[in-house]
Amino acid sequence: MSALRTSALHRRRPRLRAAALLLTALLVASCGDGSSPAPSQTKADGRGDGCVTDFSPDKDYFPVKSTVRHAKNFSVRYEKSYQVLTVAQPYPNAKPESYVLVKCGAPKPSLAGDLAKAQQITVPVHSLYSMSTTHLPLLTATDRLGVLTGVADTSLVTTPEVRARVKAGKVAEYAKGGTINTEKVIAAKPDVLLTQGSDDPHYPKLRAAGIPVVADAEWLEPTPLGRAEWVKATAALTGAEERADRVFHDVETAYTEAARQAAQARTPVGVLSGSMFQGTWTMAAGGSYVGTLIKDAGGTYPWAGDRGTGSLRLSFEAVYAKAGDARLWLTDQKWTSGADILKADSRYGRLAAVRDGEVWSNTKTTTPEGGNDFYERGLLRPDLILSDMAAILHPDLARNHTFTFYEKVPTK
Q1: pLDDT in tens, 165-174
Q2: β-pairing, 148-151 with 128-130?
Q3: Strands 280-284 and 311-314: what pairing?
Q4: What is the three-class DSSP state of 298?
Q5: Helix (H, G, I), strand (E, B), or coil: what is residue 98?
Q6: Measured distance CA(199)–CA(182) in Å, rounded
Q7: For the chain, how are helix, strand and coil distributed in percent, rounded to 5?
Q8: Domain 38-252: which topology?
Q9: What dotted CATH number matches 265-409?
Q10: Which residues pair with residue 103 across a beta bridge?
Q11: Dihedrals φ, ψ of 311, to 5°?
Q12: Which residue positions does the secretion signal occupy (predicted)?
């Protein structure tokens, strides 16, 4: 879920990691400044990040190629001097969009058919504007944070390295509250602007002004590993394919191990998710990202049979009838006491999880304005989310677990 999507959610409701469970070879993302060298500082033989200086149409300028295994909403196809990045659904119900990523120094290809009018972008990019905080860990983990020159709303950023760059004046804010300042973006002339997986009337204006706009719609992926694999889509833009492959491999390995450990639990645990706003309970569907995490953590979910990948809108009565006796409640609200829970809605007191003191919130690391690391670093690190969930559901299997995203809400 993007910063602006979560921002809107936080405005509608009250504020909506971790040693992995006996994990091995756990990823430790390389952060630092992560600056990418300018083209003049790189090798000029067409390898790695270097630009082409002596173009040959028969030479492969992308020796390192990404293979997409889990993500369903994007693909990458390689030609000799350019890649074709295709996003199947740039935003809900939208038609596919393709982007031609041309190796710097190579001539722009003359293309026909569906690619004739596709945006052509020189890669690797050296200036990137981000509409969503979910992009940030994809840059830090691949040592490309230096390309980040703009974020939509700085108040929603939780990544320390990014906050430091904002404070140092290296990263501009251009869409406070979700409204893009088109004049500011056009004046800055970033190499690319990544969307938050939704449509915006400002995007055609930016494209008309020569600013490439590329859809990042990871939130439409139904699986945790599918979302995390978008690190490879970002790497296609930044020239970090090799690093991205290593990063994702480590995440995939850690997630698989966490799920294997959770599967050893003998007793499934009933789980309730989501929360209410203005009388409507927003509940993750069984086929959604959260639904998959609950299943992989060894939980039983009353809505597991609903294979939708989005959210359900339910009444309290419908939720209570189906999950009022659920042992655990995984919520997204920044509550600090049982009184906070009952103040939000007195009916919550009827839930077994509230009575038994088993309410857990994914708001351990947040900003006062509503930024949440669960929706930021959590995109790339579903292994940490899964480890948190498994430790909540099966504490006997993770006695020394340190939580990354979840914290227990004291209800008594």
Answers
A1: 999 999 999 9
A2: parallel
A3: antiparallel
A4: coil
A5: strand
A6: 15
A7: 35, 15, 45
A8: Rossmann fold (3.40.50)
A9: 3.40.50.1980
A10: 123
A11: -115, 155
A12: 1-31
From residue 381, alpha-carbon distances to 81, 124, 169, 350, 376 in Å are 32, 25, 28, 34, 9
pLDDT single digits (tens) 1-17: 444 444 443 433 333 33
Q: How far apart are the C-alpha atoms of 394 and 213, rounded to whole Å? A: 44
Dist. CA 280–CA 138, nearest whole Å: 34
Name the residue ranges covered by the structural domains of the chain.
38-252, 265-409
By the 10 Å C-beta count (0-12 exposed, 13-18 middle, 19+ buried), 231 is classed as: buried
Q: What angle do CA 275, 265, 291 make, to 5 degrees?
A: 30
Measured distance CA(87)–CA(76) in Å, rounded: 9
**By C-alpha distance, which of 223, 225, 6, 248 is closest to 138?**
248
Q: Which residues contact 142 (CB under 8 A, 6 or more apart)?
A: 34, 231, 234, 235, 238, 240, 243, 244, 247
Q: Which two tokens stand for residue 281?
A: 């309970």
Instruction: Classify burial at 368, counting beta carbons within 10 Å of its beta carbon; exposed 0-12, middle 13-18, buried 19 or more.
Output: exposed
Q: Which of 196, 243, 248 is nearest to 225 (CA)?
A: 248
Q: What is this structure's pTM?
A: 0.86
Please classify residue 19 by burial: count the beta carbons closer than 10 Å to its beta carbon, then call 0-12 exposed, 13-18 middle and 19+ buried.
middle
What is the token pair recorded at 106? 């190579």
> Are 38-252 and 265-409 in the same CATH fold?
yes
Q: At what angle do helices 382-393 and 289-296 cross, to 10 degrees?
A: 50
Distance from C-alpha of 94 to C-alpha of 284, rounded to nearest angstrom: 22
